[in-house]
Recover the amino acids of this structure.
């Protein structure tokens, strides 16, 4: 515990932690817009395109200053994002292919420049690729200050243009329609995205930078349906993974920071994927199971009701009840499901176990009567489509009658009588 | 054969086999899946190394193929559960790559297999790793590996040419006439991961991805028939390998990088001057 504390109070670790936190927030926030604009992998292309930018910056200035590297990377990264746009707009190449072409070609050029520099200027320039492969632990105060400044500017611009970016993300056509400079805003968003990538490069490296933009935003998407909340959550997730990554890599010898940050973000994503309250997989599974249960329950009640109704018209239902094979013949469902459903209905007092099988109890009769009535009304409603087609109903909602106007209800009941489809068993009817 | 000839031959073989398979990736709008697979094979390779203890041969191929297929499977599953496809690709390959890097630093930090090496290998060293059977040198190992996967890809796609064609251009129809579309998808991703790992050790991921996407995209701008596109992509790939080597020798820079850059140059030429789909030609055809 003591050693943890010294680690946390170590100023070097604190800077790295601060840097990774800011990076997480900035890329999480920008990633939301990228995700909604379906530009998720753009970050990957821009990150790869940063390599030639850094090399050119070094060739032009001859210094290894962080600021020049960032400027070089940003300019070439922006150029790359423009190239992707041009290739998609002016040829029949799809966006993903354009992304791939730009990514690999820019990175190839970058490697050419890098090896050219290494061969022509001796080994003293080895710092260039550490910038690219992510050595967060080697960040110093100056680097963190540059990152912090850039992150604050990014977040401020995002806050200022929140309304515009929101509109652009959800309905670019409408944005253009009300006279917004959509092209300009799009370019600004690209520029911010490029800036976020460039900030992150030093901490997590080229390959993993894409994850910083995609994963927190995607995780946040599972928890909410509102953009403002999603952005806050994504920033939070990004910051959390940045902090986790810094801690783990500071505690374990030789552990690289970038991959741990990305893995923390992935864990958050997996947690969201499974456990989010409405969109998560567990919630979906629970909803599906509940639906299956309801359908099985209604099927069994209706089958029993129909059997009893049929026999009541011919003099009375058998007191021994109906066996499972008769129920299965009416509505084929899984045998095990049928047995479990009957047990549960028995516990709720809706069906009674007899010598040869099952019968509806009084409460069950009432329940099944309602269900059957509803089902038959649906049948007629669908049968007379020409007459009722103009009435809009929600077919996912179970009950029909409550959705209809009064005169239609009367009409349907009249039809029910004509077709001799009225549910005729009432409670307490017994065997007639 | 001289040193240069072996290097150029390796580059040309990588370019042809990747370009050939890449055409199908492009037609199926799966180009970035190639990028994803070539990064995501890292954990497979590391695990194969940890289990088998060697850095080459069959275990590596199997490990990479398995993690390549796993990538394709995860992307597909996420996509089906409602994640948009590009985000699914991004999450999957970055997670797997990060996992691979962590594995590497924990268990195998003393092995000559770092991320830099993985990303841009060194094709110039290819001739120094020959395949020796019964005391006879049979040329570089990489040539045999890459050549072998190219042959395999040619045979598989040759046998299933019709099926791949239909499922690439009209997936809905392919499903309707009862083709096993999912199986075809996984065969293709299997081929991609195999050729990635065969080329990986010698030329690095970046050249593999470049050759998977760029020659195919160039050919897509030049040809309107699948067979022509396939031939064209192989041709473009070989041209960029040869020219790339010459440029690299002239600049004294990375060979793989130059091959990728030359491929980009050829793409730019096709983008501007392709007779039917080039930007300038379309402009000229508009002006009567």
């Amino acid at each position: 515990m003591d050693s943890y504390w010294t680690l946390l109070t170590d100023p070097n670790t604190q800077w790295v932690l601060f840097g990774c936190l800011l990076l997480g927030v900035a890329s999480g926030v920008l990633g939301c817009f990228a995700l909604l604009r379906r530009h998720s992998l753009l970050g990957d292309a821009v990150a790869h395109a940063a390599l030639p930018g850094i090399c050119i910056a070094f060739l032009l200035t001859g210094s290894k200053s962080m600021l020049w590297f960032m400027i070089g990377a940003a300019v070439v990264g922006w150029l790359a994002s423009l190239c992707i746009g041009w290739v998609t707009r002016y040829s029949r190449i799809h966006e993903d292919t354009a992304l791939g072409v730009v990514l690999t070609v820019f990175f190839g050029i970058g490697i050419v420049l890098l090896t050219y520099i290494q061969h022509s200027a001796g080994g003293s320039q080895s710092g260039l690729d550490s910038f690219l492969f992510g050595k967060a632990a080697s960040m110093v105060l100056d680097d963190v200050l540059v990152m912090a400044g850039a992150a604050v500017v990014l977040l401020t611009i995002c806050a200022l243009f929140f309304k515009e970016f929101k509109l652009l993300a959800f309905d670019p056509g409408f944005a253009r329609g009300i006279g917004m400079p959509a092209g300009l805003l799009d370019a600004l968003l690209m520029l911010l995205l490029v800036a976020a990538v460039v900030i992150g490069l030093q901490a997590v490296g080229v390959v993993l930078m894409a994850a910083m933009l995609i994963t927190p935003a995607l995780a946040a998407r599972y928890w909410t349906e509102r953009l403002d909340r999603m952005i806050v959550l994504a920033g939070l997730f990004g910051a959390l993974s940045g902090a986790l990554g810094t801690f783990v890599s500071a505690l374990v010898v030789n552990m690289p920071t970038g991959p741990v940050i990305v893995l923390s973000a992935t864990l958050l994503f997996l947690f969201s994927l499974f456990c989010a309250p409405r969109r998560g997989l567990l919630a979906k599974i629970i909803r599906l199971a509940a639906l299956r249960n309801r359908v099985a329950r209604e099927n069994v009640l209706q089958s029993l009701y129909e059997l009893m109704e049929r026999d009541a018209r011919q003099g009375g239902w058998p007191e021994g009840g109906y066996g499972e094979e008769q129920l299965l013949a009416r509505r084929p469902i899984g045998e095990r499901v049928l047995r479990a459903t009957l047990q549960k209905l028995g516990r709720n007092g809706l069906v009674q176990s007899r010598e040869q099988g099952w019968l509806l109890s009084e409460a069950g009769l009432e329940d099944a009567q309602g269900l059957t009535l509803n089902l038959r009304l649906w049948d007629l409603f669908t049968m007379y489509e020409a007459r009722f087609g103009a009435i809009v109903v929600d077919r996912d909602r179970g009950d029909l009658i409550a959705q209809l106007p009064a005169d239609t209800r009367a009409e349907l009941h009249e039809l029910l009588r004509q077709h001799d489809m009225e549910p005729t068993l009432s409670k307490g009817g017994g065997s007639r | 054969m001289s040193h240069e000839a072996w290097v150029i031959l390796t580059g040309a073989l990588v370019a042809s086999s990747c370009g050939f398979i890449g055409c199908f990736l492009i037609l199926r709008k799966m180009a970035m899946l190639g990028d994803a697979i070539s990064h995501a094979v890292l954990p497979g390779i590391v695990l194969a190394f940890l289990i088998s203890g060697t850095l080459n041969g069959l275990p590596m191929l199997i490990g990479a193929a398995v993690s390549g297929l796993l990538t394709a499977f995860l992307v597909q599953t996420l996509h089906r559960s409602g994640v948009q496809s590009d985000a699914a690709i991004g999450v999957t390959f970055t997670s797997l790559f990060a996992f691979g890097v962590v594995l590497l630093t924990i268990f195998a930090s003393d092995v000559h297999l770092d991320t830099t090496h993985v990303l841009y290998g060194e094709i110039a060293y290819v001739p120094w790793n020959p395949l020796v059977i019964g005391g006879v040198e049979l040329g570089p190992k990489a040539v045999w590996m890459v050549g072998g996967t190219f042959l395999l890809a040619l045979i598989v796609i040759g046998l299933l040419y019709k099926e791949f064609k239909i499922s690439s251009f009209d997936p809905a129809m392919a499903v309707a006439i009862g083709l096993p579309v999912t199986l075809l998808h996984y065969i293709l991703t299997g081929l991609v991961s195999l050729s990635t790992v065969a080329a990986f050790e010698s030329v690095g991921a970046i050249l593999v991805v470049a050759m998977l996407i760029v020659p195919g995209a160039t050919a897509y701008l030049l040809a309107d028939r699948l067979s022509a596109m396939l031939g064209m992509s192989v041709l473009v790939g070989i041209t960029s390998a040869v020219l790339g080597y010459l440029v690299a020798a002239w600049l004294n820079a990375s060979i793989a990088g130059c091959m990728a850059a030359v491929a980009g140059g050829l793409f730019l030429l096709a983008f501007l001057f392709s007779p039917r789909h080039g930007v300038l030609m379309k402009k000229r055809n508009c002006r009567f």
